[in-house]
Model the fold of this input.
Amino acid sequence: MKLLVTGGAGFIGSNFIRYWTVNHPDDEIFNFDKLTYAGNLENLKDVEKNPKYTFIKGDISNPDKVKKAIDGVDVIVNFAAESHVDRSILEPAPFVMTNIVGTQVLLDAALKFKIKRFMHISTDEVFGSLKLKDKSKFNERTNYNPTSPYSASKAGSDHLVRSYYFTYGLPINISNCSNNFGPYQFPEKLIPLVITNILEGKKVPVYGDGLYVRDWLYVEDHCRAIDLIIKKGKIGETYCIGGLTEDINNLSVIKKILNILGKDESVIEYVKDRPGHDRKYSIDWSKIKNELGWSPLHSFDEWLAYTINWYKENQDWWKRVKNKEYIKYYKKQYGSI
Ligand code: NAD
Ligand code: DAU
Done:
């Protein structure tokens, strides 16, 4: 089988490519990536010499480049996106261009070349926010209610993907997953930012009261879920994917990291809240469990300890990522802390 993985140089895409080369060594993988600030070929150093793997530099919103890359491909796995909420608040335009226009360009090419499956990777943020006291969780029937330019652009892409199934019969699947964490995550996102800041002796910025709740999913558990959907998922269906966390808030996550790294809470710095900050996400993943037999392999605490260790052992990787461009973004976002 030939797979075109878009955004394969990013966090989840690179973990997915590594996962796929190990678990399906006969398949050919084409990694199509624009290499934005978040795309990093160093994430795939151990894969680049694999004869079944090819990198193509390209933008998913460029129809000619996309058509050339898709010819002969069986499955498209679309990870390519602008993915950070805070950046979408600073500058929404690239989010519309890549997440909406780019997805539509991919869909057109997928139709033209009769792709066998279009696997679209989306987010639980399209559902908006739960209230802290809510016992309910997001599921495949939850209405869309996005609140940030990022989540609105992902919602737009999901609607387009579904429309190509209903209108043209394109064989699609969509997955809406919760917050991923693990190796090779860009340190603009909470967990790698906290770990690397602590390792550098810096402050840890906490938005608002820190009582926001996320549902944490280890990246390799996510990759296994996508594999199952590609192999056994019913065409046209959506699957929600989440982790093994019970309503854990950001402060508790940060305190766990401080505890594992043997640091006290004096490094915590409360900063201005994110505008439109969603209070809580929580995923009901019973559909993918019951239909495809998926569940996370380990608890949040086990995967968190493993992840912290990875960042301790791979300081060269994240020190190179925290480059001049990163520092410029950090100052803009956090001021002088
Ligand atoms: P990331 O920001 O780490 O990586 C995104 C990748 O896409 C980068 O390699 C980047 O270069 C590439 N890219 C961006 N614009 C492109 C374009 N126009 N053409 C081609 N490539 C382009 O993101 P991630 O965290 O790995 O997320 C991957 C996908 O999963 C995204 O679609 C995101 O919305 C979704 N998702 C992420 C999370 C999470 O917690 N990280 C949770 C739910 C859903
Ligand atoms: O839910 C899935 C989504 O998870 C994905 O679709 C997004 O691509 C991904 O970025 C992530 O979005 P969040 O906004 O939830 O993730 P982030 O790591 O930015 O923030 C997690 C929580 O931590 C959130 O409540 C905001 C808070 N936070 C974040 C940062 C970066 C802080 O308190 N301080 C920070 O410095």
Remarks:
- The domain at 2-181+215-241 is CATH 3.40.50.720 (Rossmann fold).
